[in-house]
Amino acid sequence: MKRTHAPRSPSLRARFPSLRARFPSLRAKRGNPVPPCFAIAPPVPVIASEARQSSGSPAPCIVPTFSAVEDFTRPDRIVLGVTDDAQGQQALATLRQLYAPFNRNHERTRVMDVRSAEFTKYAANAMLATRISFMNELANLAEKVGADIELVRQGIGSDPRIGYSFLYAGTGYGGSCFPKDVQALIRTGREHGQTLRMLEAVEAVNHDQKQVLVHKVFAKYGQDLAGKTFAIWGLAFKPNTNDMRDAPSRVVIGALLRAGARIVAHDPVAADEARRVLALDLADAPALLENLQFAGKPMEAVQGVDALIIVTEWKAYKSPNWTTLKVAMKAPVIFDGRNLFDPIDLTAQGIEYHGVGRQSEPAPFFSLVIASEARQSIPTFTK
Known about the structure:
Blueprint (H helix, E strand, L loop, with lengths): L11 H11 L17 E2 L2 E4 L20 H6 L4 E4 L4 H14 L9 E4 L1 H32 L3 H9 L19 H15 L5 H13 L2 H10 L7 E5 L14 H11 L3 E5 L4 H11 L10 E3 L3 H4 L5 E4 L11 H7 L4 E4 L6 H6 L3 E3 L29
Parallel strand pairs: 2-3, 3-4, 5-6, 5-8, 6-7, 8-9, 9-10
Antiparallel strand pairs: 1-2
């Protein structure tokens, strides 16, 4: 019996030429696996005007290297910024038709003017960057008062008004979108006579947080690292990309090399790009690059090193063989910039663990009192 299939919606490839014909100003960005008219800034695709003079020239955002198709076909919402003229309304009708196959479960489209769509995209990234810097600042305080930031994250994240996303403490954010969009809002505020103090603080905290692992290494070994060798796991600013723009690893590697250390680095996909950008970072001291090597496998990087520094939370780093790791290293010391592991478990296995805002010993319950008045404010109940 011959099997029949339901009619398929027109493919993206079939629809795309019509958009190119209607909007000749569209240009594909290098490496984009999807048509450039989709400004994908996960989870918010934003279609907005790239040129102030044109009402039909969308401005694509950076497409994630390994999740572009997934982000496009399963968006949380679709923000369309259009003008009120005939060309803008024509673009809106075309985009509604284009997104229809991915918008059937429930209505995800948010239509607004171009300026508001642009502002929405910047505001979303600035909010996420704010959450990251907020948790990083609390993590630094948690270390000093004896709290564990991971337990704090679980405690506040369980509040549905807050949620768990982007509440992980670490070495700061990088990439292109967050730094660029936070800075763009700050500049726009200044151009209009307004100081965005909160976003200035977000950027300042993130700048300092990229040094947090460097400070921990200096605290243990001193600022003269001659004769010390460190393994670096993770170079890209986040997993599943080779993007090295504003990556915390650049700050860490540059500081350690300038302090005299030798470094053996590993990243599943970003090694070539790391070579290029680190050569630019160290253009004033190119001889330091002789102390930087790249390993093909994570365990190759840790052979004979004084400590392991984790900068990017790739899945390949999350389940190492601890026995093999301890044997390979000169000393079992880990500086974990992404809090991948439980410090208590690693301490029990004889590994010296330095996380961000973590505690290596279980804290007694109710030992932390934020306000001294709390002890006097407990009500007494009588019959």
